[in-house]
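To: structure desk
From: M.T.
Subject: fold request, one chain
Message: Could you run this one when you get a chance? Sequence is below, nothing fancy, just the single chain.
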Amino acid sequence: MRSPIILLTLVLCLTTACGQTSKYETDSFTTKSGKTVRFQALVHSSICIEFDGQEIMIDPVRQLGDRTIDYTIFPKADFIFVTHEHADHLDKVAIQVLLKKGSQLITNRRSADILGYGRVMANGDALVLNDWLSVEAVPAYNTTEGHLNFHPKGRDNGFIITIDGLRIYIAGDTEDIPEMANIKDIDVAFLPCNQPYTMTPEQLVRAAKIIKPKVLFPYHYGKTDVRKIPSMLKSENIDVRIRHYE
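Reply: Done. Structure tokens follow.
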């Protein structure tokens, strides 16, 4: 059975997800029980998710180029997911700012070793975190010759996070790998797009055609021009949304 119908809304500024009144773009979706999940586009691969008073942070980093995020103005996180140890995904200070008593950090082995803590997931692992939140760790790696050392197979994670029935694929740093054929029934997908580290727009389009999410956010795109991606997927019935995930 497909996941629940998505409420397709965009809220710009004013009162936004993660308890903030800010400049960040926010997209809202409705879960199977009629509750709202809000995604706030922070920067690059950093995403803030709010659901029913719970705060979830994906790969929080404080600075990328000339863009900075002040995490002291955000609520403390109930859950933090870190895909891998690169500096544009793992920021020790940002994590420390967001931690509170009872926070859960879910990550891969390398990141947990660097931090000295964290709940480790390897590719293929699955966790039920509570009655509304579960997560699967899926492969994320490079396949292009000459790029294999950036993200070697088996080290890093992508995550499929299910929030009250809403299935969200956070791809992490990956190319269009064969394992994507096993990723099904995705409501919201975040796919990276910047070679040499992740995918070209053409690779992202191939990945989207395999995964077939209802809504697609190209993210982690740096200076890559992703504006052509919606037209490249026009025939696929995928709602492609370009947000400030440079």
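Reply (cont.): The mean pLDDT is 92. Let me know if you need anything else for the meeting.
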